[in-house]
């Protein structure tokens, strides 16, 4: 598996600046829109669970589960961006991920503060 299968983040063509910082150097916050989030819940595939169980006997990365988590994070990020765009934002600051283990899978939430910024 190549690095592209384990990468994420915002595509520059999305038109939305997403940062984990509380501010953006060189920009001023003109308006705070508020909290936005994107959420996805993924169930585990029985085959990957069996494979993960066997892999745990010998150790090493659980590549199938890693790939699923990356896909989940990317989907949550896409939903976050769409919510912010719908509410009129051009940036999201203080973005974070939260992952919660559920009995049947995992909940991945991307959240942050939607804002309108302009060059300072």
Summarize the structure.
The protein contains 2 helices and 4 strands, in the order ββααββ. It has helices spanning 46-58, 63-86; strands at 17-18, 27-43, 91-101, 105-119.
Describe the structure.
The chain is an alpha+beta fold and 120 residues long. The chain has a single domain (3-119), classed as Translation Initiation Factor IF3. The protein has helices at 46-58, 63-86, and strands at 17-18, 27-43, 91-101, 105-119. Strands 1-3-4-2 form a 4-stranded mixed beta sheet. A hairpin with a 3-residue loop joins strand 3 and strand 4 (105-119). The longest helix has 24 residues, at 63-86. The model has no long low-confidence stretch (mean pLDDT 84).
Low-confidence stretches: none
Helix count, DSSP H or I runs of 4 or more residues: 2
CATH homologous superfamily descriptor: Hypothetical protein apc22750. Chain B
What is the first-to-last residue Cα distance? Answer: 42 Å
Query: Would you tell me which CATH topology applies?
Result: Translation Initiation Factor IF3
Mean pLDDT figure: 84
Helix content: 25-40%
- The Rg value, from CA coordinates, equals 17 Å
Total separate domains: 1
Widest sheet: strand order? 1-3-4-2
**Strand portion, in percent?**
35-45%
